[in-house]
Amino acid sequence: TISGKVSDTFKDLKNPKPKKQISNKRVYEDRYLMRYFKYALVVLVCVAIIFVVWYSIVASKTPSDGKDFNDNKTPTVEGNNDKGVQDTDDNNDKKDDDKDKKDNDNDKKDDGETNKAVEITKNGSLNYSFKLKPGQETFKFKVEFVGRSWCRLNVNGAEYEGFKSGIYNDANKSNSLDAAPETVELEFNAGDFQNLELTFGYFMGHRFYINDTLLEVDPSEYSGGRKTLEITQVK
């Protein structure tokens, strides 16, 4: 029995058992974590490549410091723009000055039109009528006494309390026509005013204004005698 078993054992040794076939599967087939790690690694590499390319493009457009521009002797756009802006500011200032001047001229023109918003008609020797523009509620009457003269004012047929009867420009005792005048200015309500009569004891060189519009007096009318100025409002 022992001999038979030994004999069988030697037979088994002489006839080697066939090797098991190894499956031709990948080593990492069942290792899911390693597979995802490879994918993640590939993605990181791609992102790194893209970042390097982008940084290279940006770095090529941006100077590392300001020496490149400072060393460049070619006139820069910045300098030209400064000059252009300065010129533009000067032009704007000039336009603003012109506009202000034009506005001032218009204001003066408007003031002149307001002051001269009156139509004056000479009816005869020291006899005038005037008509105000619509909307004017008041008007001014001004007298410049050149010669030394006594004077009295009647308004609407009665002596006007706002005017003192007496001697005006008493300093011009020689009655020089070049003497500085004594000025009296009165303001009347246009709705109430009808007419006025200004009587002079000595009529020489006097001047009269309605809203700063001069009444034309012929030199022959300055006789040096007693005279009466008549002014009537036409409505």
Task: Write a short abstract of this structure.
The chain is built from 4 helices and 11 strands.
How is this structure best described in words?
The structure is a single chain. Helices cover 37% and strands 26% of the residues. It has helices at 2-14, 32-61, 67-71, 77-115; strands at residues 118-124, 127-132, 138-145, 149-155, 158-159, 166-168, 182-189, 195-200, 207-210, 213-214, 227-233. The strands form 2 sheets. Strands 1, 2, 4, 5, 6, 8 and 11 form a 7-stranded mixed sheet that branches. Strands 7-3-9-10 form a 4-stranded antiparallel sheet, with no helix packed on it. A hairpin with a 2-residue loop joins strand 1 (118-124) and strand 2. It starts with a helix and ends with a strand.
Counting H and I runs of at least 4 residues, what is the number of helices? 4
Instruction: Give the tally of structural domains.
Output: 2
What does the main sheet amount to? 7 strands, mixed
- Strand tally, please? 11
Strand content: 25-35%
Unreliable spans:
64-85
Q: Give the helix level as a range of percent.
A: 25-40%
Mean pLDDT across the residues is 78
The rounded Rg comes to 57 Å
Keywords:
about 240 residues; 2 domains; rod-shaped; 4 helices; alpha+beta; about 35% helix; 11 strands; 7-stranded mixed β-sheet; 4-stranded antiparallel β-sheet
Record the SSE blueprint.
Elements: H1 2-14, H2 32-61, H3 67-71, H4 77-115, E1 118-124, E2 127-132, E3 138-145, E4 149-155, E5 158-159, E6 166-168, E7 182-189, E8 195-200, E9 207-210, E10 213-214, E11 227-233
Parallel strand pairs: 2-11
Antiparallel strand pairs: 1-2, 3-7, 3-9, 4-5, 4-6, 4-8, 8-11, 9-10
